[in-house]
Design a protein that fits this description.
By secondary structure, the protein is an alpha+beta fold. It has three helices and four strands. Strands 1-4 form a two-stranded parallel sheet. It has a two-stranded antiparallel sheet with strand order 2-3.
């Protein structure tokens, strides 16, 4: 959605009654994935919105760049946990 100029949070809010799974990643430029929170997707706002709704479906984190996927995916997961704690 970021690459298309669509705000992920606004799209989620409009369509949340139909959303069953979420595939989340962040990009700094179209096609270049970055650790969640370091791109242009305003992922913090998105995560807090989904957490606020107690989204019952599956949320998958995608990360396709970097030198150490294990470390970078761990950073993504820590970022998500931090945003959810802020929401509580």
């Amino acid at each position: 959605m970021i690459a298309l100029g669509i705000d992920p949070t606004d799209a989620y809010r409009k369509m949340k009654g139909h959303v069953r799974t979420i595939h989340v990643k962040d990009e700094d430029v179209p096609g270049h994935t970055v650790v969640l929170g370091k791109g242009k997707g305003n992922i913090a706002r998105f995560i807090r919105s989904v957490a606020h709704d107690s989204f019952p479906g599956l949320i998958a984190i995608e990360y396709e760049e970097g030198d150490d996927p294990k470390e970078e995916v761990s950073e993504c997961a820590q970022y998500v946990r931090g945003q959810v704690r802020l929401e509580s």
